[in-house]
Amino acid sequence: MKQSAGSKYPSENHTRDVVDGQINHELTKARYRSLDLADLMFGHLVTTRLARDILDRLLADGTVTCEEIKPNEEEETRHALDAAYTDAVAHACLRSDAPLDEPAPEPETKYQWSWPKFPTTPTNGNKLVAFLNNVADSALSSARSILQDDSLQPRNRFAAPVDKNHAIPLSYEPNGEDMRPDFMVLPLAAFSDDDEPKVKGAYVNFTAMLLAGESKSARNAREGLIQVQRYMRGIKRAQPWLRFATGMTVGKDFVALLRGDCSGIERIELSLADGRGCIEFIRIILGIVLADKKAFGNNPYVEIGEKDVSVDVPELRPADPPRTVTSDSACQSSIPPTFSGSTSKPRTSCSASSDPPRADQLSATSSAGSKSRTTSGGSKRGPDDEISRGQKSKRRKRTVALRAFIPVRVHGRECIGILFTSGSIRGRGTTVYVVATAGDGKTYFALKTSWQDVARADDQAAVLKKLSDHKLHPNLVIPLELFKPKADDGRVDSTLGTTRALVDEEIQQPKVENRILTATVSELRRPVAYFWSPHDFWEGAYRRSAWP
Length: 548
Prior knowledge:
about 550 residues, 7-stranded mixed β-sheet, about 20% strand
């Protein structure tokens, strides 16, 4: 049984090393390169041809250069753009002019592309964000001109952390976790209306984050990929309703886009030194700016609202000293960097009490599983209590006011809060919402969603049917309703079919497990996590004690 990074043992430290180890174990044999990921995510917004024409204009204004092209050489420019476009089209999943089994052609002339305005110190988040926003603005302006469509409006922008000394809030990680991406993507509402939009600090939190990014040099590209996985996990924990989380690693010579769903992670790695990489980079940047929340994994069955909250944010811990990597750990966490512009072929239980938990025991943006843990002595440990050598962390904190994004309706029912979540990247991603009925609004139920392995989903339905035919113990709760939400195409919502857009023939021969979204509605009873001690649990289970 795989160990999930979504939860930990009560006595286990939740530090960076532990989390990274759990994530790598969780993602064993579940990380794949997807050469057409940019097309899958943003192809409906930015076509390859449009990106080619935008690249032409960026080449003219000096944003991009090509060493093989001299000034005013229109014919050579056309050859370079055509070679880049042909290479990019050959890797797209929706190809109209290239046979499926035909390998991607090698361009006759190897052109060397570069982005002169890329900041020479990519670890400076502000400079990198300014560059990415400039590219996005230029690409959007060019797209409006090319398409003669002034209705194209941005929905999102890149932003850098406002506070450089504290972790970004609402990731629900302990103090020892460095949760501050170098850059992120936030909705346009998070920015001021000035000529030079500035990010509003209240929106810089993990519930508002659409994408988390890390900047690294080429030699540290693998570290960037591992680190951004931690941020993607943070997004999934803060927004457990997401189908997937998105991450990005950027350097002067490369870009990597990652998408993590409950079946694993797929990524595309591109070299910015070749034409295809430049075209796909434009598609990714412009697509990110134009995309709605559904493109970033938002579940259409979950309606999101906003809420003002106040939280304490700990200071970041100092950087860890270099670790000696053993052969086993190196093998387990290996992500080979291949930023080479490859041209290979694309991939085709509870007590009898029915009273709901009190409002102060529910969180609209966290859960009992991630917000507290019961130790063997019965005490509670909060998410910001880092235990290190038996001592609580004395790291200074500061209180900040935030605008949090929370679920207000889930599958047509009013959402009171999130009772539990085991959110990580890969796995079932079980989340339990407290929902109210449409009648008086005072009768509460537990709505549980999870991404079940398709091989087990039918077994679950069979077990529930068998249980419903027998008289049950008064303390045993079974779902009153089981349903499988449908995707836009009418099929059951699944990771390989809906998210990764595989056809039925490909789903029958998957490299990773296919997971389908299932939901159950049950009576709301007292969760095990809310019992204060083993004795309290015994009282509840066998003597049917009332809610304290």
